[in-house]
Fold this sequence. Notes:
Layout: E1 32-39, E2 44-53, E3 56-65, H1 67-83
Antiparallel strand pairs: 1-2, 2-3
Amino acid sequence: xxxxxAADSMDRSRPDPTGLGIGPDEGGVAVLMGxxxxxxxxxxxxxxxxxxxxxxxxxxxxxxxxxDEGFRAGVGGAAKELAARPH
Length: 87
């Protein structure tokens, strides 16, 4: 079975790839998108994260982690990316 995440189904050609009206053109800085799915083979949660900043996607993931750790990986990774942006 092939699984797709919300990040896979985004229209990346638009300034607001989510279609939610919160992209850079609408005053937003960035949108964090991710998926958390249980991985039997990894005995934990598999997480894929994406944030688009300055028109460039940043991708990261975690494998075989607890749900809390996977969520922290997403939010922490987004905070790190946003903190690195020039002000």
